[in-house]
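Input structure tokens:
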């Protein structure tokens, strides 16, 4: 998992005015009232998924796309969904710039999951919510 993180240049996923803080272990603002998660949090979430490299993964809350890119080195396919169109477009541009081919960015309400790309072997939620949406459970692959 750490090898995957070293392959993704975090400074590419933050605004220019905070680039000098890109590797500080703390969240940073990315606009629209959103933040990029601190590296430790991204590492813990990725580690908790116990990926082997052949999974179809859903990330809810794309933000700037950093975590999706880290996941791209750990899974076969990553679908990431973002409710803020400008952030989704920013993430997609960064993913393309880095030449990452196994991440698909979707714009929409992540609280419903992404049924058209299910089933997922793992779902990671990088955004807050009051409870676990039932749709997530139904979109998980059978173990």
């Amino acid at each position: 998992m750490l090898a995957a993180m070293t392959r993704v240049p975090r400074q590419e996923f933050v605004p220019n005015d905070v680039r000098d803080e890109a590797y500080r272990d703390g969240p940073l603002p990315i606009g629209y009232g959103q933040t990029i998660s601190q590296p430790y949090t991204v590492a813990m979430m990725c580690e908790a998924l116990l990926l082997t490299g052949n999974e179809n993964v859903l990330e809810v809350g794309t933000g700037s796309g950093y975590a999706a890119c880290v996941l791209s080195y750990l899974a076969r396919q990553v679908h990431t969904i973002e409710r803020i169109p400008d952030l989704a477009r920013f993430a997609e541009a960064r993913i393309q710039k880095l030449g990452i081919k196994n991440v698909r960015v979707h714009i929409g309400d992540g609280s419903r999951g992404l049924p058209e790309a299910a089933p997922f072997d793992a779902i990671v939620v990088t955004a807050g919510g009051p409870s676990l949406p039932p749709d997530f459970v139904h979109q998980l692959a059978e173990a």
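Residues 2-138 form a domain with the Rossmann fold fold (CATH 3.40.50.150). Helices lie at 2-7, 39-48, 66-72, 85-97, 134-138.
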